[in-house]
Amino acid sequence: MYLTDLAFIEEGTPNYTEDNLVNFSKMRMISHIIREIRQFQQTAYKIELQPKVAQYLLDNSFVLDEESMYEASLRIEPKVPN
């Protein structure tokens, strides 16, 4: 979400105003997003181990090869001719 917001700000907002001055409005928008990202990075997350979840994530029997993933993808979302 943040990367998308930053990309839209960068692409959709000029760096300079019509008077050829630095666009501080754009810089404030970027600063606000970076401040939020930093806030979330500094927050400590206490995540308790869930043995069943960990076992499921580490179980390699559910891993599909590339061809199997492609076939599953086509079953879920078949190709539509243009």
Characterization of this structure:
One of its GO terms (molecular function) is guanyl-nucleotide exchange factor activity. Keywords: Guanine-nucleotide releasing factor. It comes from Liparis tanakae (Tanaka's snailfish). With 82 residues, the protein is mainly α. It has a domain at 2-42. Helix content is 60%, strand content 0%. It is built from 4 helices and no strands. Helix 1 runs antiparallel to helix 2 (24-42). The longest helix is centred in the middle third of the chain and has 19 residues, at 24-42. It is flat. The model has no long low-confidence stretch (mean pLDDT 94).
Write the layout of secondary structure elements.
Elements: H1 2-12, H2 24-42, H3 51-58, H4 66-76
Helix pairs in contact: 1-2
Listing every helix as H and every strand as E from the N terminus to the C terminus, the arrangement reads HHHH
Number of strands: 0
Distance between the termini: 31 Å
Shape: flat
Major sheet details: none
Structural class: mainly alpha
Poorly predicted spans: none
Radius of gyration: 22 Å
The portion of residues assigned to helices is 55-70%
Mean pLDDT score, rounded? Answer: 94
- List the total number of helices: 4
**Strand residue percentage:** under 5%
